[in-house]
């Protein structure tokens, strides 16, 4: 993996959406679990807003999402 791959927000967002769907959660459910609005959750998933570390920490603490997969794609 190249360093610039880590900054690929659309890829992060697609993996986040895939994990949310794998967990069987609606956008609003995951947003609520991680302390975000539906609008912000959608922006993370479409890659138009970077996913901050505190969100990933909440995601890890409150769900069974594979945060390493979301970050690395592996």
Automatic annotation (TrEMBL):
InterPro entries: Cro/C1-type_HTH, Lambda_DNA-bd_dom_sf. CDD domains: HTH_XRE. It comes from the Bacteria. Transmembrane segments: none annotated. It comes from Pseudomonas spirodelae. This is Helix-turn-helix transcriptional regulator.
